[in-house]
Design goal:
alpha/beta; 3 domains; eight-stranded mixed β-sheet
Length: about 290
């Protein structure tokens, strides 16, 4: 998978040039596509700068700017929500970023702790102290869930854990199942970006919902969609203008409810009123998902 760059709200535009060089020099270490999360002051401009400098990365920007200027870059996702510990903890259950960039005049230690479980590296730029701090995870990270809308208790076929193995050269997701006495370990290449459910829940505004639906219309006849086996929002990853399916089901059979699943997929995309209300989103998802 391509790595997603989540651009933290930051102040790159007003930073001393040495910080910009340090950030870009660090990102140059990657010999693969990667994902970056950008947060903090002036995150929009900072994230766009990174997306332009690293066109094969996936950049996720968190900002409160609800009407950003026209974005011509194809590797950018923008989430419009207010940063909080509660929201970041919700996100770190199911997302992983290769690098998180957090720039702020008074960086919150609480937010940094919430970012650690979903970040391989954190570049923390403290504007008051005029310092750049570096944090690196010393162990493989674990996902508690593969998606925010984790199946309800009546669905028991679930992995025990998701382990992420990441270096500057490669990144894999290792799934450990406990459905038999001899657990099956599945190792798959990571797909860059964020889960479509994450994008919808955290009020994704770029790319637009209408663009996503028109893209899905174009992909409807694609073999990876027709024979996916479980085409749900939770099994799609978005990285800017690119949408890719994950967790393929039976590749030899068309899902009996394919048309209903596809209609549900397009319907939930336009339900902006579900954003940032977890119980509302979760209830709507499982009540209306065709099975």
């Amino acid at each position: 998978m391509r790595i997603t760059l989540l651009c933290l709200l930051s102040l790159f535009a007003n930073l001393d040039g040495s910080y910009v060089r340090d950030v870009f020099r660090f990102l140059d270490n990657y010999n693969r596509d990667f994902t970056v999360l950008v947060l903090g002051q002036n995150a929009l401009n900072n994230g766009l700068s990174i997306a332009k400098g690293f066109p094969h990365s996936s950049v996720i920007i968190v900002t409160l700017e609800k009407n950003p200027k026209r974005i011509d870059l194809k590797n950018v996702c923008i989430l419009a929500f207010e940063l909080s510990y509660r929201h970041l903890v919700r996100m770190n259950e199911c997302e992983h970023f290769d690098t998180t960039i957090y720039c702020d005049p008074n960086p919150s230690t609480v937010l940094v702790e919430a970012l650690k479980p979903m970040s391989q590296h954190i570049l923390l730029i403290d504007l008051n102290e005029n310092n750049l701090h570096f944090w690196e995870s010393k162990k493989n990270l674990m996902l508690k869930k593969r998606t925010l809308v984790w199946p309800p208790p009546d669905i028991s076929t679930r992995p025990k854990k998701y382990e992420i193995i990441a270096t500057f050269d490669e990144k894999f997701l290792k799934k450990s199942y406990t459905l038999s006495k001899n657990p099956d370990i599945e190792k798959t290449q990571w797909t860059n970006g964020i889960n479509l459910v994450t994008f919808l829940f955290f009020n994704g505004i770029v790319p637009s919902r209408s663009y996503i639906n028109s893209t899905l219309d174009r992909l409807k006849d694609d073999q990876s969609f027709i024979f996916h086996g479980d085409l749900t929002p939770a099994n799609l990853v978005i990285a800017g203008e690119t949408i890719k399916p994950i967790d393929m089901g039976n590749p030899k059979a068309r899902h009996p409810n394919f048309e209903k699943l596809f209609d549900f997929l397009k319907e939930i995309i336009i339900k902006k009123e579900l954003a940032c209300n977890f119980q509302l989103f979760y209830d709507y998802y499982w009540k209306n998902l065709p099975r």
